[in-house]
Design goal:
The chain has 3 helices and 19 strands. It is mainly beta. The radius of gyration is 22 Å and the shape is globular.
Length: 333
């Protein structure tokens, strides 16, 4: 329920009471004091608006900063939703709105923005920064993630907010070989630094028992130089329905993803298959999803290939003006 948890007897008629946005005014806690035996679940929560790869709110283009500072009045941050779970054992779980972005509900914007910003991933399944908050909280394989990217030519000498998520014990931040300090990790929150921007290389080093276990590097990249294709699987079934997802990345000459690249990529296909969709996760894009081309959004786009009913090799070629092309092969069995 969105409201009325204690009105009209509804909450007394179900085994588990679902609270949509119960974090609003800490309704979870208020009701638990009054109804200590009630089983509660966050049936819809969070609704934090962010856009993949964006770090400043843009009312004109319809983008929300990945710092999550445009939170609708009924909702809260990803951290608050999960911390409610961690800190209050009477909550049985939460459903985060949403796992993926989707068409419609472009809150806090209107047309021409046409997609939601609520997802942990964008609508192509590319992770946003919040994805790594959950990864740090929920998984055990050592990881560290930092944001934002490190391409800010107009902000040399200005302070940049740097956030890190990790499941290690401590994280040390290093800029161009100089340590900016080491912080203890709270897996259910983030670490923050104020960093005076200088081009180069920013490294977050995850440590356990004082020893480096993992690291994440963000660096100033060069200009777009080539295309990379990554398949979610190399083989599909010759049944006329099976599909493969092709992640497209725009790289510089050293092989690093260019975080603001928006090159248009054209796809050609040979063999027993067809392109059935393209996307890029841009909530303001009006490009057709049924097409043989797509503009990258902050370094990435996506093509979906479907097999026919004949075996053989599907060959997909991706090209873009002034970029080195890329080829991928999918086996149809």
């Amino acid at each position: 329920m969105n409201h009325g948890w204690n009105d009209g007897g509804y909450s007394n008629s179900v085994d588990i009471t679902g609270y949509n946005y119960g974090q609003r005014e800490d309704q979870y806690l208020i009701d638990h004091e009054q109804f200590p035996d009630r089983i509660m679940i966050g049936s819809e929560s969070t609704s934090c608006t962010t856009t993949r790869g964006i770090y400043e709110n843009d009312d004109v283009k319809g983008y929300c900063s990945s710092y999550g500072d445009q939170i609708p009045e009924w909702s809260c941050s990803h951290e608050k939703s999960w911390q409610d779970m961690v800190n209050h054992p009477h909550l049985t779980g939460i459903f985060v709105w949403t796992g993926f972005d989707y068409r419609g509900e472009p809150t806090p914007y209107e047309w021409p923005c046409i997609g939601s910003h609520f997802g942990i991933m964008d609508y192509c399944g590319f992770p946003k920064d919040a994805y790594y908050f959950y990864k740090a909280a929920w998984t055990e394989e050592p990881m560290v993630h930092i944001l934002p990217h490190w391409n800010w030519p107009d902000k040399i000498g200005e302070e940049i907010d740097v956030w890190a998520y990790s499941n290690c014990e401590t994280v040390e931040l290093v800029l161009n070989g100089h340590s900016l300090g080491e912080k203890s990790v709270d897996r259910n929150s983030r670490m923050e630094w104020k960093v005076c921007y200088a081009p180069g290389e920013l490294i977050a080093i995850g440590k356990i028992a004082g020893k480096e276990i993992t690291r994440k590097v963000v660096a100033k990249t060069g200009t777009p130089d080539r295309i990379r294709l990554e398949l979610d699987k190399n083989e599909v079934k010759a049944n006329g329905t099976d599909i493969a997802m092709i992640k497209v990345s725009i790289l510089d000459a050293s092989g690093e993803v260019v975080p603001m690249a928006d090159n248009e990529v054209m796809f050609t296909i040979e063999g027993p298959g067809k392109i059935i969709g393209v996307g890029n996760g841009d909530p303001s894009s009006h490009e057709p999803d049924k097409a043989n081309r797509r503009r990258a959004f902050n370094g990435h786009c996506l093509a979906i290939v479907q097999a026919n009913k004949e075996p053989g090799d599907i060959v997909i070629r991706a090209t873009s003006v002034s970029l080195q092309a890329a080829v991928a092969v999918i086996r149809v069995e």
